[in-house]
Amino acid sequence: MLEFKKLLKDVRVIKPYLEMSPISFCDISLGVKYAWRDEFKVEYAIYNDTLILKESGHDHADAFYYPMGADENGALEQIEKHCLTNFMPLTFCYIDDFYVQKLCSRYYGAKVRCERDWCDYIYFAEQFKSYAGKKLSGQRNHVNKFQKLYPDYKFKKIVKSDLERVKAFLIEYESGRNISGWTEKVEEKTALELIENAEELNQVCGLLEVGEKVIAISVGEIVNDTLIVHIEKALKDYQGVYPVMAKEFAKAFAIDGVRYINREEDCGDLGLRTSKLQYKPCLIKCKHIIEIGTLFDKIKSPINIKTERLEIAEIERTDSEEYKKLYLDENVNKLWGYDYREDLGDNEATSEYFYNFQKLLKERKEEFSFAIKLGGKLIGELVLHNFDFYGGVEMGFRFFKQYQGKGYAIESASALKDYVFKVLGAKTLKSRCYKENFNSAKLIGRLGLIKVREDDTHFYFELKI
Q1: Are residue 204 and residue 247 in the same domain, yes or no?
Q2: Average of pLDDT values for 143-165?
Q3: CATH code at position 335
Q4: Please, is 74 exposed, middle or buried when counting C-beta atoms within 10 Å of its C-beta (0-12, 13-18, 19+)?
Q5: Which of 151, 150, 132 lies closest to 141 in space, CA to CA?
Q6: CB under 8 Å to 207, separation ≥6 — which residues?
Q7: d(CA 382, CA 350)
């Protein structure tokens, strides 16, 4: 089983794995992981030299990044087991177009969504170095005006001796500002930390000065062929300062194979969105969230399946006394595969307990129980359980002894099989039985399921479409 640890201040533990990821979102960088470590709950596990990240944020909970490392497929299987064992939905976050296709091909019933507020703005790096062309004439004019007003301005890479001046700049920048957005608050808190730990976190930092006064700072990170701009702050009293800072930062660090600049998201801020669009992005890169469902999600109440003699429906409170007897019947349950006493604990084995127990399993999307009724009376149970993320489900059945051998099992199980394939759209129906349970094995075979394997105790059957 996966053992997750909380990602704390020392984000360098995941650095080698982040560098393996071909996904170029800003979120898959040391700077973002460090700066937002308190705002987003991020946990990590290492499986077979592969990083598995799990995150809860403002628009997703317990969502997984695409695995990073040598064994992507093995890591995905571990994620699936983790979710099924812990009754969690399987959700992926920060997925680009290529991996959307991979995950949608892998899983059944994937739902894909993209939050516009969290799209990354990607630009060609060269355009920031000159603002050439008609589309960027506005930025070019701002730069020309700034250079005329402040001909002695300088850009320099930040070194440790600049820290006191950077602190003074941040104090002036923050003074008198009404910081209401939560994203801005995070940036205010972490800007200096990123600069102070720049070497350890692979950050590149620059400042713009007029005379000895710092009027702008920028912090970024080079990931593969992209310069990610994490922070850009300037004193607005200096007209044109932002386009100048963006240009100088690109000239200094978008070199040696860096083709793109990622200026991150607008977080839904309309002013910020307008500004980012004015720089003419070559791509607004969508971060997809993918929710993987199971067949359980397609079961819609009320269920009422009728056969020639039987009715298959959800278990109701009026069935609870007979349902309890089904659990307590030793002859019925010796080959059922589950002993109710495993979970009973200090509870009393009452009809209310068993009725509530099947409701709990249903609420956790672990198992869906169906009453098999003859003339309105419960004579047995069908269950769908072991739902997987590939459109598969397992079916089980049990009947009171006096109703066995009368064809009720094949009649009801056939009807549920049709429901599973025709209504739920299943890809695989599974079943199993103890090796000594010849009647069940024969019934499963009559349903069209084929034995695919066996172990010391069970035969396992499947039917695929």
Answers
A1: yes
A2: 96
A3: 3.40.630.30
A4: middle
A5: 132
A6: 155, 156, 158, 162, 165, 166, 169, 214, 216, 217, 218
A7: 21
Q: Fill in the amino acid letter for 361.
A: L
Domain end (from 84, 118, 152): 118
Query: Which pairs from 382-385 meet CB under 8 Å and 24+ separation?
Result: 382/312, 382/412, 382/413, 382/416, 384/295, 384/296, 384/299, 384/416, 384/420, 385/361
Confidence of residue 8 (pLDDT cuts 50, 70, 90): confident
| Angle value at C-alpha 403, between 398 and 406, nearest 5 degrees | 110
Question: Is the domain of 185 the same as that of 153?
Answer: yes
Q: In what order do the strands lie in the sheet with 120-124?
A: 154-157, 203-210, 213-223, 226-234, 260-262, 120-124, 283-285
**What pLDDT score does 182 carry?**
58
Residue 333: pLDDT band with limits 50, 70, 90: confident
The boundaries of the domain holding residue 128 are 120-264
Question: Would 274 be classed as within a structural domain?
Answer: no
> Is residue 290 a part of any domain in this protein?
no
203 occurs within a structural domain: yes
- Total count of domains within the chain: 3
In terms of domains, do 155 and 87 share one?
no
Q: Examine residue 23 and state whether it is found in any structural domain, yes or no.
A: yes
Tokens describing residue 277? 């669009």
φ/ψ of residue 219, rounded to 5:
-130, 135
Tell whether 73 and 139 lie within a shared domain.
no
Report, as an integer, the average pLDDT of 401-424.
97
Burial of 152 (0-12, 13-18, 19+ CB in 10 A): exposed
